[in-house]
Specification:
Length: about 750
């Protein structure tokens, strides 16, 4: 037996040595550094989350006022002299009110102290006033029992001295117009003063159905200042049961509502009735008015219903069509007062109920009660921020705050029948050159355009990005892969404005001429690629190891380039011999589709080039990170390289590939400059690849510089941004759920 191992014994006074080395303690400096980095990373992450949430809160804050209702306050009654009013006007500041009383006197009253600023007695005697109405924004009209129409101008001026705003009024001499030669009483009256007061059109009717139309033109001599009046008269007939009469501001159309529920429409040529049309409105008509612009006819009926009608022109055919209805009022509608801004109106019913309605959004924005009930007359203020109701008790000021009446869920996402349109449509047109324009703020064309541009770009980007990533990671020679991958990834840094510039100014005109060749390539290139693959496989079998690895790339590039060149060379022959003309003219003739130079194909190519590098980079990383043991095991069991890639590598890397596609989708959805520069920016809903579109992001970039802060357009653009935010969030969330499910499914491979 061997000698026992000696165990060292420490000498006296010498510390004992451990059999194991003592672990070194981490320095305090490193611990503090780790904590600092942890705090910085945590703070950075929280800052990013807070920033995103802050942006979301800001967008929501700007959007919420769109859906706030109108705020209307009916003020107390201020007694004014003159008895029961027949018609009234007010200024833009609602400081003065001009009232035509039953005694034939026009009084301008200052509402703050009820003092009379100006008075004028109309030359009514020996007759009496039988009917009265406003004659445009600056005049009152009265019809008399002996067939005369008296126009009283009301001139309001505002000055701003150091002491503050001063509003004054003047009542020039009244003008008397005889509607007809006889002395029949005027029972219904409509008058419009236009062209800066130079043209006046009066339409008056009698109880027996006689109609008189007078058109008076004023001409001022520039040398002497003398004003001469030239009048022309026309006669006609209206139904004997006429209930309301209204003229449009252009003095080209006359509408009559009857007590048996008919609407009669005359076209006027220089004040002379020419064409007569008639429509059935159903219940007896009790009130009639034209909304701003003179195209939308607001019809109030005895059953409390309130409807909008349009004149519709289809070639030489004209008709009145029933467009929309408002909620029914509890009693017959007796008075209508159109808003001077926007397509709204105030409606008064026989029970004294007052309602604020808006045509475009098809909503009743507010309901209340007039102070004098059904006996009141209405007058909108010129700024549409208020109105006055005048009755036997006096005048009441109505304050109206209605910043976004055009907006409703139906107006934003549904089809709306706009003025001048043949049918209800989705439409975006935020501005025009006239004040009576009806904003069209449907978001559907923008959502449609966003999806259209994204889908067309992904048609190109997804196959090329994924297949090229698969080839680069699994088939390409490593030496070439080290060169190709960084080159493709560098493409992602190309500014989108450069791609948009090239697409709009170079690619779009070029594509118009070579599109037949491009379409031919879709057939020829795959066939050429398959044929080249067969040739290369035969060559490698015959030559064996003498063929250097990786040289197949150059062979396929040469074959594809030759096939593409052949397609381009055959393009002119195809147009001349097969299409018998240019491709755009052939598309228009054959399919009735107009070819726009900047279209979805151009955007798909340009935006696809921008998205391909992103999809390629992420998908290539996912494919390359598949464990090599899986690949080697599959090959060892006799599977071919293609079988291994399609049945092992692709399923295992599918979560990453799916993530690459979703990231590319997000990149395409948010793209702005390429879409802005490479399409016609036309907000239409058409899947045709030969026309353009408008996306949410491009629309925001186009419209926001011209949108007044706090206005309807401004807040609608923020709503578009919120939709874009929500769309991206929902797609990314759904994609993450699907990706996690794919990871769990293929984790066992």
């Amino acid at each position: 037996m061997g000698e026992p191992a000696s165990i060292p014994v420490p000498l006296e006074g010498e510390p004992a040595r451990s059999s194991r080395a003592q672990p070194r303690r981490t320095s305090a400096r490193r611990l503090w550094a780790d904590k600092l980095v942890r705090w910085v990373v945590t703070a950075g992450g929280l800052a990013i989350i807070a920033s995103v949430l802050g942006i979301l809160v800001f967008i929501v804050h700007e959007v919420l006022p769109l859906f706030s209702g109108a705020r209307v306050a009916v003020g107390p009654v201020a007694p004014v002299p003159g008895g029961s009013p027949l018609a009234a006007l007010t200024d833009e500041y609602r400081e003065l009110v001009a009232i035509l009383g039953a005694d034939g006197v026009v009084r301008v009253v200052r509402l703050s102290d009820r003092s009379i600023v100006a008075t004028a007695t109309l030359p009514v005697a020996p007759a009496t006033i039988t009917v009265a109405a406003p004659a445009g924004p600056g005049a009152l009209a009265a019809g008399t029992s002996d067939g005369r129409v008296i126009l009283q101008p009301v001139l309001v001026t505002a000055s701003f001295p150091a002491s503050g705003r001063v509003v004054t009024a003047e009542l020039p001499p009244a003008r008397v117009i005889r509607a007809w030669d006889g002395s029949e009483a005027v029972t219904h009256l409509a008058a419009e003063v236009g062209d800066g007061g130079r043209t006046t059109l009066v339409a008056a009717a009698t109880a027996a159905g006689s109609l008189g139309i007078v058109r008076e033109t004023s001409v001022t001599n520039d040398m002497t200042g003398e004003v001469t009046h030239d009048a022309s008269r026309a006669a006609g007939a209206v139904p004997a049961d006429t209930a309301a009469l209204v003229l449009d501001t252009d003095q080209r159309n006359l509408y009559v509502g009857t007590r048996d529920g008919r609407i009669v429409w005359w076209r006027l040529a220089d004040g002379v009735p020419s064409e007569r049309l008639e429509s059935n409105a159903g219940a007896p008509i009790t009130a009639l008015s034209l909304l701003l612009g003179g195209r939308s006819l607001l019809v109030g009926r005895a059953d409390g219903s309130l409807a909008v009608w349009f004149p519709l022109v289809r070639g030489a055919d004209r008709s009145l069509v029933h467009v929309r209805d408002f909620p029914r009022r509890p009693a017959a509608v007796t008075v209508l007062s159109p808003a001077p801004r926007g397509k709204g109106a105030l409606a008064l019913d026989a029970n004294g109920g007052l309602a604020l309605v808006y045509s475009t959004s098809e909503r009743t924005l507010w309901e209340g009660t007039a102070r004098d009930g059904a006996r009141a007359v209405l007058a909108y203020a010129p700024k549409a921020d208020g109105a006055i109701t005048a009755g036997p008790s006096g005048v009441s000021v109505v304050s109206i705050r209605n910043p976004h009446p055009e907006i409703s869920a139906r107006a934003l996402l549904g089809k709306i029948w706009y003025e001048g349109y043949a049918k209800p449509e989705y439409s975006w047109q935020s501005s025009s050159g006239t004040e009576d324009f009806e904003p069209k703020l449907s978001l559907v064309p923008l959502l449609f355009g966003t999806l259209k541009g994204t889908i067309y770009s992904l048609f190109l980007a997804v196959p090329l990005g994924v297949l090229s990533a698969m080839y680069a990671s699994q088939f390409l020679h490593p030496s070439l892969r080290r060169l190709v991958k960084p080159s493709v990834e560098i493409m992602a840094s190309l500014p989108s404005v450069v791609l948009g510039f090239l697409a709009g100014l170079w690619l779009a005109p070029l594509l118009e001429h070579v599109l037949p060749s491009i379409l031919l390539m879709l057939v020829v290139l795959p066939v050429a690629l398959i044929a080249a693959g067969a040739v290369w496989e035969g060559a490698t079998r015959r030559l064996g190891p003498r063929v250097p690895a990786g040289t197949e790339v150059f062979f396929f590039v040469v074959v594809l380039a030759a096939a593409a060149w052949a397609c381009l060379a055959a393009g002119p022959a195809i147009e001349s011999d097969v299409l018998r003309g240019t491709f755009p003219s052939w598309v228009l003739t054959t399919f009735g589709v107009r070819y726009d130079q900047r279209n979805a194909i151009v955007v798909g190519l340009a935006m696809g080039i921008a998205v391909i590098p992103i999809i390629f980079a992420i998908a290539e990383d996912a494919l390359s990170n598949v464990p090599r043991t899986l690949v080697s095991g599959s090959l060892a069991l006799g599977a071919t390289r293609w079988q291994t890639v399609t049945r092992i590598v692709l399923p295992t890397a599918s979560p990453g590939i799916f993530a690459a596609i979703i990231v590319g989708f997000g990149r395409a959805v948010g793209e702005t400059m390429i879409v802005l520069m490479a399409t016609g920016n036309t907000p239409i809903t058409d899947w045709s690849p030969f026309n353009g579109f408008r996306t949410l992001s491009a629309n925001i970039a186009t419209e926001i510089p011209e949108a007044p802060q706090g206005g309807t357009l401004y807040r609608t653009l923020f709503l578009a941004a919120l939709l874009l935010f929500a769309l991206t969030f929902l797609v990314n969330t759904a994609a993450e759920l699907i990706r996690q499910r794919l990871r769990r499914k293929y984790a066992s491979l």
